[in-house]
Input
Amino acid sequence: MAQKRLTLETEVQSVLEKIDAGRNFLLSGGAGSGKTYSLVQVIKQVLTEHPEVKVACMTYTNAAVREIEQRVDHKNLTVSTIHDFLWDNIQHFQKELKSCLIGLANDPDEKRIQIDDGDHIPEDYFNAQPDGIQYKEFLRLKEGIISHDELLILANKLFEKYPKISKILKDKFKYIFIDEYQDTNSLVIQIFLEHFKKSDKKNVIGFFGDAMQSIYDDGIGNLDFYKGDNDDQVAEIKKTQNRRNPEKVISLANLLRTDGITQIPSADPAAPNMIAGVVKQGNIKFIHSANDDFKRVKDYLKNTLSWPIDDPAKTKELNLTHNLIADKAEFRTLMDIYDRDQILSYRNRIKKYIKDKGITDDFSANTFGEVIDILKQGKSGAALTPINPTAGMQTFINGHTALFNIALAYNYAAFLKIYVDKDQLIDDKKQSQEEESRKGSKRDNLIKHLFKIQTNIDLYTNKQYNEFLRATDFRTQITSIEDKRKLKRNIETLMNVGDKTIEEVINEAHELGICLIDEPLERFMRDKKYVYDRVKEVKYKEFQKLYDYLEGHTPFSTQHKTKGTEFHTILVILDNGGWNHYNFANLFLNSGTPSVLARTQKIFYVCCTRAMENLCVFFHNPSVQVIDKAKQWFGDENVISI
Output
């Protein structure tokens, strides 16, 4: 067995030595270092040497779960997302779950879970729920249904309060490995590195990841608090090789790292960044222009450098936000409806005013307009300011008077329940056409219905006739050849969307039997009429553009979404889009708020290290100081003005 270990990566051998010593460990490695490959090697070796033990592996996405399951097929290996793992192992402790959930709701210091507007909850509150506490994709705390965020809070409290659960879990799994640890919530880390210590049972917790790629605010970022040389601390092993990026990208990325890891090209001749035993050099460009027309930049990359920028399978253009992409991908109207509705912002302003003033009137029978009038009665001068729209809200209202009149006529209580967020529109974006949709999309029922319609159209257009027959609601009507001919006529009629609105296509798809209006859509039309009335007037062609973007048919992606992927060519647009969490100018100047600088450094590092061949960074109208720093990072010859 020792001889077999000698054939493994040096870093994996070091990890196995820590496992032998019963030490918790951390394998740190930069982008493209093959951390997942190392994780798989560790799992395989542990199961080879200890075939009788059970191993758990948790990772961030369902796609990563499938990848690991495909690489390691063993009956004693459990692979899942962190949320699924926690729920699978705590769901049977219903008595304890109920007690903890009620305790969290009643604890004045917590206030992270509220069941009934902050009122005190009796101990037997959930006893009437036949299914007890449940974990689902939506939140209904009064019914005992928790969602993603509540699960982490509740699980942490459960392990803190009941050491026996740690004992049971440690008995069940001798080894627990967590991939992409930097994205893991601190509450989860606390479970495994603090609450687990309340049980005398022994097991090993292993972490794999890269602190420099901690780009999500709800992740722990690093394990510095837990790392050390003592037996009860986490032992760190650093992996410095890079198997993905060409030499020039590696050199640039090393200038961005702040954790002491300096990457070197892989010595493996079979690594993706090697050709005939020699590392690829690749290409890096920093392009700047006083003109914000990125088309000219693309023309230069395509025609002068012959980069494959029109191929979404090879090239990704990375923007910081979906809003920055909306105009380029041509779904601006829909994005504005879901992300910039100032009438709903005004409603929220009124709601806050009522709360701040301690107004206890019952407005359940009033319209939104009546509530505004009631609040204004007896008020004058400056006192009106919190009730009136802001300047931005008023501008929006002036441009949407018909919509505002609809809002004013809405029952106030019903209007308060209308929630709109861009995730309901653009959640679950794919990076490529081949990528599978993930579990638990946040898209609302209107967008889901439109996806059904467009999926029917796409399947037929792409001649995937069997899949089309399974997808269409017309399938229940097919009993003869003539029915199939009718279906052909109907789908081809539906495909001709022309300048039809979304509502017209929904109705036509229903009348033709291709995609029937179902109960979830009817409920949306009824309960969210305000949103439906806005969306229904949008041209269906715009939804098709959104569909193409979300299904990975375009080269566009947000910078956060591309994490974990790799492409031949990467175009990075350095525009923070008004988001003050990031500042790309200060990144080059090494100035500004430390938290913003660190956040910007990490997202820029992630973006650059997606490139397997070509990397282009575009900065609109940078200062002389930014250009000087770009020349230091990219080289004088690679900084180009267009």
Residues 433-439 have pLDDT under 50 and may be disordered.
